Amino acid sequence: MKLTYYGTAAGEGWPGLFCNCSLCKTARELKGKNIRTRSQALVNDDLLIDLPPDTNMHCLVYGLNLERVDHLLVTHSHSDHFNPADLELLREPFAHNRPNTFHIYGNSKVKEKLWNEVLDADMAESKFCFYDAKPFCPIRVKDYTVMPLLALHDRREECLFYQISQSGKTILYAHDTGAFPEPTIEYLKANKTHFDLVSLDCTTQSEEDGKNHMGLIDAAKEKHRLIELGLGDNTTKWIVNHFSHNGLWLFDKMAEEADKYGFLVSFDGMVVEF
């Protein structure tokens, strides 16, 4: 399997659009891996996770090819993870030679946002198929088995993260979550899936959180818990992802600190094969 990180920042991006803090100013000067766009990833070449406002930039700068993508997993309705206005561009005259139905998987708030902001009846019928993603209810997506898991994030909606399996390999993509809630832990305990790649939220970096997001210490605790449960080991690729300038660490410092806990640090355009 392959996981490509196209966007690795929290909601404001890094540097933040209007921000003049020292971390954002330095990122503008240094560029490279310090430039982070809003969160998005691609499994292999055909299963997209989240649709941020930076999707077109990911196509232009990092080579995200949407020609093969007609399945989208959405974690939650926040605008940095789901920008449904871009989906209007699936219709004529904006998109030619695009015959396939676009399949979207998400919670009820994602569905509400999609229907309220974008769709008319004709477009809904001709271009989209929406699936209600429910925690702990598996979804068959092409040749993937996708398990939505309950996140600890915005209590106004049922935020999700995803376990994605194909051909005996499994990714755990866990972002915009604090410490895994008890129902998710109980599911993981009961099912004993070995993870080949674990991508954990690290929004607050140097600061502990655990309630809505995670910092590095929180992510390290979650890694330890997964190992204790027998769900990961030294063959697992452990990665931290989804960073805010409020966490205070640019890429090199983040990589130095993360290495102490056995984590790789994501960056925009990073490809991980396993």
Question: How would you describe the overall organization of this protein?
Answer:
This protein starts with a strand and ends with a strand. It has a single domain, classed as Metallo-beta-lactamase, Chain A (4-Layer Sandwich). It has helices at residues 22-30, 55-62, 108-117, 121-127, 182-191, 216-228, 251-259, and strands at 2-7, 40-43, 47-49, 71-73, 102-106, 128-132, 139-141, 144-150, 160-166, 169-174, 197-201, 237-241, 264-265, 270-273. The strands form 2 sheets. Strands 6-5-4-3-2-1-14 form a 7-stranded mixed β-sheet. Strands 7-8-9-10-11-12-13 form a 7-stranded mixed β-sheet. Strand 2 (40-43) and strand 3 (47-49) form a beta hairpin. Helices cover 24% and strands 24% of the residues.
Secondary structure layout plus pairing:
Blueprint lengths: L1 E6 L14 H9 L9 E4 L3 E3 L5 H8 L8 E3 L28 E5 L1 H10 L3 H7 E5 L6 E3 L2 E7 L9 E7 L2 E6 L7 H10 L5 E5 L14 H13 L8 E5 L9 H9 L4 E2 L4 E4 L1
Outline:
With 274 residues, the chain is α/β, with parallel strands linked by helices.
What is CATH's topology name?
Metallo-beta-lactamase, Chain A
| DSSP strand content | 15-25%
Instruction: Give the proportion of residues in helices.
Output: 10-25%
Q: Residue ranges: pLDDT <50 for 5 or more in a row?
A: none
**For this structure, what is the CATH class?**
Alpha Beta
* Radius of gyration computed on alpha carbons: 18 Å
Largest sheet: 7 strands, mixed
Please state the second-level CATH architecture.
4-Layer Sandwich
Structural class: alpha/beta
CATH homologous superfamily designation = Ribonuclease Z/Hydroxyacylglutathione hydrolase-like
